[in-house]
Amino acid sequence: MTEWLGWLLAVLGGAALGLFYYAGLWFTLRRLPEQAHPALWVFGSFALRLAVSMAGFYFILGPDRNLPRLGVALLAFIVARVLLTRRLKPVPPPEPRS
Predict the structure, then answer these.
(1) Domain annotation covers residue 43
(2) Which helix (H) or strand (E) holds 97?
(3) CB 10, CB 72: distance < 8 Å
(4) Do 76 and 10 form a contact (C-beta atoms < 8 A)?
(5) Which residues contact 19 (CB under 8 A, 6 or more apart)?
(6) Structurally, how many domains does the chain consist of?
(7) Structural domain containing residue 71
(8) Does 83 reside within a domain?
């Protein structure tokens, strides 16, 4: 019973990390045109998203270094990307005025 809880937490944790990472990327890119220093904005966002994601995956890996559990979390991370990509479709650019 406890093993199933670990797998479920790995799936939920991977999905939550994916949601955080890719929603943060979407937020960053949406706010990019209004930033005074866009390179700093992109780098800061990337560093924060990467640090949180890596810490989360390290936590999911656990003290027993369970690689299959980490693989399930990574799969859930990728599934979150696919679902967010379908949900947050790209906004078409405005049509040029004539």
Answers:
(1) yes
(2) none
(3) yes
(4) yes
(5) 80, 84
(6) 1
(7) 15-87
(8) yes
Q: Residues for the chain: how many in total?
A: 98
Average pLDDT, the chain: 91
Rounded to two decimals, the pTM is 0.84
The answer to whether 79 and 18 have CB atoms below 8 angstroms apart is yes
Residue 95 within any structural domain of the chain: no
Smallest Cα–Cα separation from 45: which of 59, 26, 17, 73?
Answer: 26
Q: What is the pLDDT averaged over residues 22-30?
A: 93
**60 burial level (CB within 10 Å; 0-12, 13-18, 19+):** buried
Q: CA–CA separation, 68 vs 65, rounded Å?
A: 9
pLDDT in tens, 40-64: 999 999 999 999 999 999 999 988 8
Q: With respect to residue 93, please indicate whether it lies within any of the assigned structural domains.
A: no
d(CA 55, CA 52): 5
- Percent of residues, the chain, with pLDDT higher than 90: 68
